[in-house]
Amino acid sequence: YMDKDGAISSQFEKNSLEQAGLVKMDFLGLKNLSIIERCVNLVQETTGVEIDIDTIPLDDRETYTLLQRADTKGVFQLESGGMQTLLRRLGPTCFEDIIAIVALYRPGPLNSGMADMFIERKRDSKKVEYPHPLLEPVLRDTLGVVVYQEQVMRISQLIAGFTMPEADKLRKAMGKKLSDVIDALEEKFLRGAEKNKIDRKLAERLYGMIKKFGEYGFNKSHSAAYALVAYQTAYLKAHYPLPYMTSLLSAQTDRQDDVIQYINDCRCAGIEVLPPSINASGYDFTIEGKSIRFG
Asked: How far is CA 272 from CA 218, 256, 263, 289, in A?
């Protein structure tokens, strides 16, 4: 708000915008979307192939092979060293695995053992277990591990009969670590479970599981959107490495360290990056035969 002199005051209470009934939105200007668009255009210009990036198959074998060997430099969300290690350990085989790994690669899930549990169950299906048969449809995609905030909401509905607003209140409390709200909702959860003829000890164990994993839960709709862009960039790198790396390098002209890193990645893949040339260079990086010409 502004004070009487028109200056903006910094003394906001925590969550004051929310309390005022306003909605905060983050608009992300992802350069990866520009990289994808440029790559698709380059593929059409150089090969005549038209790619509809929104209809590519989500079960493409070459893409998952690239992800399993963690050849993910330049792949959205999946290029850090720690993420590459996680990819090698997990060995993703389906799109749900990518959604999960985006959600799990955060300090909370890594330090709490959530990521390790997910990987163990992925590698050995015999370790997959569900705390109650009602929860199998909710937790099947994450191998019995509570990974997403939406799962916390659904569990509270199925086990304790929470309404959607009550389930959302629990999700918000978990995400913001509001221990007083979490504790206040526990008795309601246990009473609801009792009404649904769920054994009290099991209900207490379920709520304990929600408390343990819920505070690290990630919003699945957010994770899925990120995973789709990650998959699209991995698909283009797997099938069209020359146009993709050209597009990637053109987007990094103000970041010298990234340019060096991606040039090294090109060399590892057998793609030569030619030096700048007054006669041959374009404004950005360009494709020249089977090589990339520096801009």
From this structure: 40, 18, 8, 10
3-state secondary structure at position 2: strand
Convert 99-129 to b/e letters by CB count within 10 Å (16 or more is b): bbbbbbbeeebeeeebbebbbebbeeeeebe
- CA–CA gap between residue 295 and residue 277 (Å, rounded): 8
Q: Which residues of the chain have pLDDT under 50?
A: 1-2, 4, 9, 11
Nearest to 65 by CA among 248, 249, 239: 239
- Stated pTM of the model: 0.87
Q: What single-letter DSSP state applies at residue 237?
A: H
Strands 286-288 vs 273-274: parallel, antiparallel or unpaired: unpaired
- HSE at residue 277, side-chain half, CA atoms within 13 A, is 11
**Selection from 186, 194, 286 nearest residue 242 by Cα:** 286
Could you report the per-residue pLDDT of 120-176, keeping only the tens digit for each? 999 999 999 999 999 999 999 999 999 999 999 999 999 999 999 999 999 988 888
Neighbours of 83 (CB within 10 A): 19
Q: Which of 74, 119, 82 is nearest to 229 (CA)?
A: 74
Rounded-to-integer distance, Cα 44 and Cα 47, Å: 5
Cα gap 51→43, rounded to integer Å: 8
The tokens for 50 are 């038209």
DSSP state, 291? E
The token pair that represents 205 in the structure block: 């164990």
CA atoms within a 13 Å half-sphere pointing along the CA-CB vector of 200: 3
In the sheet that holds 273-274, the strands lie side by side as 273-274, 291-293, 286-288
The Cα-based distances of 245 to 71, 239, 259, 284 in angstroms read 13, 11, 10, 12
